[in-house]
Amino acid sequence: MAQSPLIFILAGAFFSYILYTRITLYLARRRFIKENGCQPCLGRFHKDPILGLDALKTMNYNSKHHIVLQENKKRFERLGRTFHNRMVTMPIIATCEPENVKTILSLKFKDYSFGNRQKAFTPLLGHGIFNADGERWSNSRHLLRPNFARDQVADLEAFERHFKLMLKHLPRDGKTVDLQKLFFRFTIDSATEFLFNHSTNSLRMVGQEDANNEDVIFGKAFNFAQDDIGTRMRFGALDRFRKNEKGQEAIRICHEYIEKFVDDALRFRKELDHEKKAGSAEDEKYYFIQEVAKQTTDKKRIRDELINILLAGRDTTASLLSNMFFEIARRPDIYAKLRDEVATLGGRTPTYEELRSLKYLKHCLNESLRIHPVVPGNTRFAIRDTVLPLGGGPDGKHPLFVPKGTTVGYSPYVMHRRKDLYGPDADEYKPERWETLRPGWEYLPFNGGPRICLGQQYALTEASYVTVRLVQEFKEMESRDPEPWIESLTLTLCSLNGTKVGLTPA
Ligand code: HEM
To answer: In the structure, which protein residues have their CB atom closer than 6 angstroms to any atom of ligand 1?
Structure first.
């Protein structure tokens, strides 16, 4: 009994402290809002004010019916260019304003982190560049950046080798072929060669998907582990209760496969150190993994960085090619124009400089990334109270307060199709618009600011090379997709029904 007053005193002190911090926070925020001229955002997607379950239900329905992006666009048209949303306990601000995107990714870069997304990625990706924030990310970027120099990304001989293998699977008798499936094989084969100095050579294994071959097993495990990231994201905090032995096994296979190459690279570094001491080291072409091993001997670190880049670089470039050829196959005029431009090479395989000089090719790629951006939506998490320049007030033209703990989602897909920015034909695939178009932050396929895609040049070189070679080999391409383009949205965006075409040899 004698303790009761003490308990009351402690409880009183605790609640006073909570009240005091709440009031101080409230006053500080009121001041911050006033100083920045912020006004409330009036657009609101969710009707359930506590958990936003109605919004969650709509999102699940859209995802099941492959209409996430088109519905998101309609939502922006209905609610305004910036609006509020809520997913269970997560407050969200969604925006398609280029000025806001510039603020999140560049001007106020330090006010944001990746937030919860890391939890879903960590089992496969560890703490590599794609999954790190702050100092850790900065170290990764510093470590990897030199490997994306021109000499490294312009290995056209490797692209040609993989292209020749792909060519074997392209029917020359007009039979229908799904280019998308082959592009996915092409990019994993070239990315694994670029990164590990060992290609999965999946194009050699077409029709042998059940082979007990470690490259085939890795390819399947990587696909599974990557899809499982999406599942983990959807389950969120509940994922820890999910039984997922197959997912864990897939991750184990991926890690073990890559660790073998890491061991080789570390052995290479030891030999190099030895040769340097003896003064007999020679300059030769080093592969990505060997370069990284020259800078760190931390085996897990090297493995994590490489698997991050494989994930960032594989499906993205394959999706770009698939989406672009889906459009071009329906437009014989565009195919013919592309062929005319490529004919200036006189039938030779292109050099790096020649690839860069093909303007119409560049316009075709740009335009595909505009209407089908491979990373169509993205998020950042406010780690302190901050402000967006637009979205507040009835017209959305005033600054908007972003409380710490808010997820800000931005949509390149919606931005890229805004009619006020791209004209009334914004939904059409029209490479010619790039003759005069010079967009800023309203065009963002590779992200912007300090975290801009590191592999942009590699991706564009690879996609350009494959396009030129295809156009050289085939004089006509005909679409065999009876349906319009339908989204398949996983970590990247490609066509649900693939890219089915018939080809006429040149
Ligand atoms: C068409 C092809 C590609 C597109 C559209 C694309 C797009 C993007 C985007 C939007 C991001 C930002 C992700 C974020 O911060 O949330 C990104 C980051 C990144 N990309 Fe790409 N990417 C492509 C190809 C590649 C390739 C081929 C590689 C490597 C070989 C690569 C390596 C990376 C890396 C390492 C990052 C992380 C950069 C950082 O956080 O500092 N990407 N990419």
So the answer is: 129-130, 141, 309, 312-313, 316-317, 320, 374-375, 378, 445-447, 451, 453-455, 458-459
**What is the rounded CA–CA span in Å between residue 74 and residue 443?**
19
Other CB atoms within a 10 A radius of the CB of residue 10 amount to: 11
| Predicted local distance difference test score (pLDDT) of residue 269 | 80
What CA–CA distance (Å, rounded) separates 245 from 429? 43
pLDDT at 282: 60
pLDDT attached to residue 438: 95
CA distance 504 to 255: 42
Closest-CA residue to 488 (of 343, 405, 376, 387)? 376
Output the CA 446–ligand 1 centroid distance in Å: 6
The DSSP code for 477 is E
Look at residue 242 in the predicted model and tell me its pLDDT: 82
- What would the DSSP string read from start to end of 17-78? HHHHHHHHHHHHHHHHHHHTT------B--SSTTT-HHHHHHHHHHHHTT-HHHHHHHHHHH
C-alpha–C-alpha distance, residues 344 and 197, integer Å: 33
Low-confidence ranges of the chain (pLDDT < 50): 1
**Residue with CA at minimum distance from ligand 1 atom 7:** 446
**Burial annotation 405-425 (CB, 10 A radius, 16+ → b, else e):** ebbbbbbbbbbbbbeeebeee
Between CA 413 and CA 72 the distance in angstroms is: 9
Report the DSSP pairing between strands 386-392 and 82-87. unpaired
Angle (CA) 126-131-135 rounded to 5° is 100
Task: Decide: helix, strand or coil at residue 134.
Answer: helix
**pLDDT at res. 280:** 62
- Which atom of ligand 1 has the smallest separation from the CA of 319? 1
User: Do residues 167 and 183 touch, judged by C-beta distance below 8 A?
Assistant: no
215: its two tokens? 């490259």
Alpha carbon distance 496, 180 (integer Å): 10
